[in-house]
Amino acid sequence: MKKMIAGILAALCVASAGAANAADTVTIRVDGEELALEEPAFLENDRTLVPLRGVFEAVGAQVMWDQDSKTVVVTQNQEDALTVIVVQIDSKNAFVGEEQKELDVPATLVNDTTYVPLRFILEELGNSVTWDQETKTVDITTA
Q1: Is 6 domain-assigned?
Q2: What domain range includes position 76?
Q3: Is residue 70, in this structure, part of any structural domain at all?
Q4: Confidence bin at 19 (pLDDT 50/70/90)
Q5: 52 three-state secondary structure
Q6: pLDDT at position 77
Q7: What InterPro entries does the annotation carry (predicted)?
Q8: pLDDT over 90 (residue 6)
Q9: What is the CATH number of the domain that holds 77?
Q10: This prediction's pTM
């Protein structure tokens, strides 16, 4: 009897953990199309962090990674000008061109995937970003 109760409790714990993770899932849409990411986006301190390469390449940006300095460089041509954004892992400072700006949350590495704050970089690249709290959906409209 004790083993059966323990088994039921364990099953309930696993089921509720899965439901909690599903509730924390963030959906990303680019110009109305849901983006399939290899690694999931997540929330940290009310900010959406996304796997760098998948999202930014979807909006036409180029992404470079420097392993030695743990630095990400995102570039995109906009109206005859090149926008360059440099972000270092675990730093709240970012550079847009030569101007230093502060991030709400730092870029981070999770299981060898670089995660960055979505809104900051996308808006610096001229895109529009909206957040639906009820559905935990980010809608990106490209420039």
Answers
A1: no
A2: 27-141
A3: yes
A4: very low
A5: helix
A6: 87
A7: Cu_amine_oxidase-like_N, Mao_N_sf
A8: no
A9: 3.30.457.10
A10: 0.76
Question: Considering its fold, how many domains does the chain have in total?
Answer: 1
Query: Which residue carries 């979505």 as its tokens?
Result: 118
Contact, 29 vs 138, CB < 8 A?
yes
Confidence (pLDDT) at 88: 95
- Three-state SS string over the chain comes to CHHHHHHHHHHHHHHHHHHHHHHCCCEEEECCEECCCCCCCEEECCEEEEEHHHHHHHCCCEEEEECCCCEEEEEEEECCEEEEEEEEECCCEEEECCEEEECCCCEEEECCEEEEEHHHHHHHCCCEEEEECCCCEEEEECC
The H or E element that residue 23 is part of is: helix 2-23
- C-alpha dihedral sign at 57, 109, 46, 12: positive
pLDDT of residue 45: 86
- The first and second tokens of residue 86, run together, are 């440099």
**Closest among 53, 54, 71 to 63, alpha carbons compared:** 53
Angle at 138 between CA 61 and CA 14, to 5 degrees: 115
Asked, for residue 14, whether it belongs to a domain, the answer is no
Amino acid at 4: M
